[in-house]
Predict the structure.
Amino acid sequence: GQQVMQIPQYQHVQEGEDFTTYCNSSTTLSNIQWYKQRPGGHPVFLIQLVKSGEVKKQKRLTFQFGEAKKNSSLHITATQTTDVGTYFCAHSGANDYKLSFGAGTTVTVRA
Amino acid sequence: DGGITQSPKYLFRKEGQNVTLSCEQNLNHDAMYWYRQDPGQGLRLIYYSQIVNDFQKGDIAEGYSVSREKKESFPLTVTSAQKNPTAFYLCASSMSFGGENTEAFFGQGTRLTVV
């Protein structure tokens, strides 16, 4: 099945700095979803992108879906300690319910 | 409250025993999923179900079995054939696929330790 690769695997960020995590696929995706899992918790849905070139913002988080619908990015500005956790991208099939996740980017923040 | 309930939160079993993890949802979602998460790793799909009495293997189904006799319930059995069963197991559900409303809602997870 389709696989998505997330880079980097780990991101160590100074508080106040920006960072970006990427999700890449070799094939066209019908949609991209992003989830956040806090340490010791369960994944929580953040957003879904379905249109080519789509950009959505949630406060300091900016999500983008590539023009070819093969990649996506999550950009966080002015990182805070509350941003600590693992960010996963995921996608579901165009014609079925299979929901597959990337390996995630684990973010730590230096105060 | 609407949501997904997994029980128990922690589970200990002896090697060689089968164990069943419970997952119940009252969101009226069609699809349900089981994922396995190992320390520092992502979510790997074990099984998923799109409708009652039907389910499909995910990427790591060997050593696991499921049933979907009711829309609300999707129990996972970890059999003695699973070579490395110790992990964090997450159940999820979603309403639809492909377009809108495909977001998955997760339970709190069951941490299984086999000794």
Remarks:
- The longest strand of chain B covers residues 43-51.
- Residues 49 and 55 of chain B are 4 Å apart (CA to CA).
- The interface with chain A takes residues 30-31, 33, 35, 40-45, 48, 50, 56, 58-59, 90, 92, 94, 96-100, 102-109 of chain B (CB under 8 Å).
